Amino acid sequence: MDLFARLQAAEFRARFYMKTIQGKPVSTGYAVGELYVYKTLSLECTRTAIAPEDISRETAVLSAALAATKDNIKELIAQDRKSVV
Predict the structure, then answer these.
(1) Neighbouring residues of 35: CB distance < 8 A, sequence distance ≥ 6
(2) pLDDT of residue 53
(3) What is the maximum alpha-carbon separation in the chain?
């Protein structure tokens, strides 16, 4: 590979694969590694009146959603533990 081709390849890698990120350091020194960026979600909630006869049904829907979320979190924790060990 000639010099020009190597320079083009290096520029391509620098542009598309390598990024410099600065943040708040937790210790002194220099580090190279994978970066995980977590973005927060913006949630909008609206208030809706529930008719008295629908309260038990809506409570059941909420309970089912909470149970599904709990199971999902347990699965994520198990997957994370497998990837660490």
Answers:
(1) 21
(2) 96
(3) 78
Residue 85, burial from CB neighbour count under 10 angstroms (0-12, 13-18, 19+): exposed
Distance, CA of 26 to CA of 34 (rounded, Å)? 16
What is the Cα–Cα distance from 12 to 23, expressed in whole angstroms? 25
Confirm whether pTM is higher than 0.85.
Answer: no
Q: What are the residue ranges of helices labelled H in the chain?
A: 3-16, 55-84
Amino acid identity, position 59: T
Computed on alpha carbons and rounded to an integer, the radius of gyration of the chain in Å comes to 24
